[in-house]
């Protein structure tokens, strides 16, 4: 029998819904509240035209999903990727709700996306795509309604275009309508590095709990974009060697440790048009399928969803799995990992640094009072460690996995707020 749920065709959404059902059973969630949390509050789908550089008109599909509007403005990234569809965006919006709940932020979850390959678009085409999409979703965004941020395939410049388009419509500058924008336009010092830094704060806490010295430990990182590259840099700072790194084009390995600074120069060199780690002289190429199963102390999937499958999970040779990406581990893989000694730092906790510093940026823009990067990093570490401690306490006291403990804290916060506010007639 076909489902009447618009989102169920997406395996990513089904995964998020399955996690919610597991949490609902674990914390005895009110069925009415559970039903409300299972489906996004609002979804906008738009097919919009853009004039391409060759003069042709192309139709792009765009999505903005607001999972909840209960806890405050909805908050979440905007991604440009060929795989983007309604179900994927809805799942990411749901996870963002739990993430904001875990971190005690006054936001609800949202997400947006445009189905495209940003690498195949010129700068002018990306700007026109971004501005037209902003026009299409103008009625449901705003600093007290829905605040966007960068995600896969988008960056500070994307956010600057959104801010400018929105501000031109309103009639004055509204920097607080987006986060993750350039510092010159009201962006926050340390926002670009926040997700990667948060990952490593959690890794360090996990290693401390396991009595593993980070100096001399090894790491494998999947993804060398914003999150992956900063994670590599921060791991080096605590003395951990990054021995293998991969991206969408391939993977590289050096058992003695990869020179992350040199790799960054290679990736950003003008001649490296694909911005890939492949071809780096300081490491050997390996099969992409071998990356995640490379032996290491810490494995950081920091790219896309559902990469740690049931098959891959049985082959992992790490002690800590730190989920820098959203939804990298499938429920079937979780079942396999439950029988292992791998310490999992779940995504809704591990990569929450980005939305946390986005909150700092939003507050600064509203107050028109900017913080130093030192202050930002201090507050980020404090909130990340408070959340880490709450998750571990929940896991130990209730005998739950780290994932179920983290999700239960996020879901319970949103559920309590819905219960207290009541149901509008």
Automatic annotation (TrEMBL):
InterPro entries: Aminoacid_DH-like_N_sf (IPR046346), Glu/Leu/Phe/Val/Trp_DH (IPR006095), Glu/Leu/Phe/Val/Trp_DH_C (IPR006096), Glu/Leu/Phe/Val/Trp_DH_dimer (IPR006097), Glu_DH (IPR014362), NAD(P)-bd_dom_sf (IPR036291), NAD_bind_Glu_DH (IPR033922). Transmembrane segments: none annotated. It comes from Urbifossiella limnaea. It comes from the Bacteria. CDD domains: NAD_bind_1_Glu_DH. GO terms for biological process: L-glutamate catabolic process. Substrate binds at residues 75, 99, 358. The active site is at 111 (proton donor). Belongs to the Glu/Leu/Phe/Val dehydrogenases family. Residues 188-422 form the Glutamate/phenylalanine/leucine/valine/L-tryptophan dehydrogenase C-terminal domain. GO terms for molecular function: glutamate dehydrogenase (NAD+) activity; nucleotide binding. This is Glutamate dehydrogenase. Pfam families: ELFV_dehydrog, ELFV_dehydrog_N. The record marks 151 as: Important for catalysis. NAD(+) binds at residues 195, 226. Keywords: NAD, Nucleotide-binding, Oxidoreductase.
